[in-house]
Amino acid sequence: MQTFLKVFGVILAIFVVVGLILPNQVEIKREIEINASKAVIHEYVNNLDNWPKWSPWLELDPSIQTTIGEIHSGVGASQSWLGNSGGGQLTFTDSSIDKGVVYQMSFEGDPTVYQAGLSYQVKNDKTLVIWTMTGEMKPIIIGNYFALLMDSLVGDSFVAGLQKLKEISETNRSFEHFVAEENIK
Question: Which domains does the chain have, with CATH numbers?
Fold first, then answer.
């Protein structure tokens, strides 16, 4: 029994020391080139009513129930969700056709508030869309281990969402003329 306790104590000490050394920073970044204007892409990104058309989360957890706040698009737009995989909420803090959308997001049971967003850059007559998420995982030690895993856990979902955004934006380029006219008014 004493040998077991010693081995367990050493393993626990290693776990704690390594956990303290690991960074708790989460930085996820994925990008894709889309053959559509910023205005067309922004219509899908800026309006939470359009997120189900490209967001990867419903495919990953079909039980998700989303509730959109009083504001559906632009600064102040918000939504919350709850599903078998958990719940969370997000609120747009910045939004423009030229730069993209920035939002704060939190997950049920996680004290971290993440800064996330989708930004746009014109590149060779296409639009480069970059989806990012940053934050500091808490609590210390356990959060540091989770921070290490976040890129692999969330990154593939970002890729899937960006691919769907590309498909819907490029398919609906005829919508581009309408969006351009609406923005002139």
Answer: 2-184 (3.30.530.20)
- Segment 149-171, tens digit of pLDDT: 788 888 999 999 999 999 999 99
Main-chain phi, psi angles of 161, to 5 degrees: -65, -40
Rounded Cα distance between 43 and 73, Å, is 9
Contact 141, 20 (CB under 8 A): yes
List the one residue out of 169, 142, 159, 140 whose CA is nearest residue 37: 169
85: which 2 tokens? 């995989």
HSE at residue 50, side-chain half, CA atoms within 13 A, is: 15
Cα 73 to Cα 86: distance, rounded to the nearest angstrom: 24
Which tens digits make up the pLDDT trace of 62-107? 999 999 999 999 999 999 999 998 999 999 999 999 999 999 999 9
Rounded to an integer, what distance in angstroms lies between the CA atom of residue 158 and that of residue 56? 7
Confidence (pTM) = 0.83
Distance CA 158, CA 30 (A): 6
* Tokens standing for residue 12: 């626990």
